[in-house]
Design a protein that fits this description.
- It is a single chain.
- The protein is of the alpha+beta class and 203 residues long.
- The protein has four helices and 13 strands.
- The protein has two domains: 78 residues, no CATH class; 119 residues, Alpha-Beta Complex (Aspartate Aminotransferase, domain 1), CATH 3.90.1150.
- A hairpin with a 5-residue loop joins strand 3 and strand 4.
- The termini are far apart.
Length: 203
């Protein structure tokens, strides 16, 4: 029988390595070992018992409050390699970077200033924002001036999403970029948006 402790304050899970009448030695989630007094264990920790399987290894989760199955026994085969979701995020970020660099380079050619905000990247002509770039799970999202739709063909209109007025956003014409093949159309949208912004400003 493997006995584990759960912290009443933080929810952290630890394994009991050795216990006597007056003290208890535990191994915490980060692998460190700590000796606690019996009174500390009684006051601040709750005991959890887990059946021991000789073919498995007990893993202490570093973020136990986010895990519904506390004290789950995990097969050793599950421990190998990087977490698949983390690997996917890295893969998407690496795929997104060349697309972002290409659009930033295009923006400079169009005499636009690239300003990186907390939630998005703004493309500006002078003090006028002409487009926004935002990262998505698998690529980028380009948002441009609403009147851009007036200059798009029926085929082009299939490549965009127009957000409704209830969203209360000004740049409501959206293109989702998931590959380098989408970049030419994104550049076209940015160029059209720049023209619409300047026309509105002059008009």
């Amino acid at each position: 029988m493997i006995t584990k402790l759960e912290s009443n304050r933080t929810g952290e899970i630890a394994i009991i390595l050795k216990e006597t009448e007056n003290s208890c030695t535990i191994r915490k989630a980060d692998g460190t070992e700590k000796k606690l007094s019996a009174s500390t264990v009684k006051r601040w920790w709750k005991r959890i018992q887990v059946e021991e399987d000789p073919e498995t290894e007990v893993v202490v989760d570093q973020e136990p409050k986010k895990v519904e199955e506390k004290g789950r026994i995990i097969k050793k085969s599950e421990l190998k390699g990087e977490h698949p979701m983390k690997a996917k995020k890295i893969e998407y970020a690496q795929a997104r970077q060349p697309m972002l660099q290409a659009l930033e380079h295009y923006a400079y050619k169009e005499y636009l200033t690239v300003e990186k905000k907390k939630a998005y990247i703004g493309l500006y002509y002078g003090d006028r924002r002409v487009a926004e770039l935002r990262p998505t799970k698998k690529g980028l999202r380009v948002a441009v001036h609403p009147k851009v739709v007036e200059s798009l063909s029926d085929e082009d209109l299939k490549k965009i999403v127009v957000q409704p007025k209830s969203y209360q956003v000004y740049f409501n014409v959206i293109q989702y970029i998931v590959s380098v093949e989408d970049l030419d159309f994104a550049k076209k949208l940015i160029q059209l948006s720049k023209a619409k912004v300047l026309k509105t400003y002059k008009g």
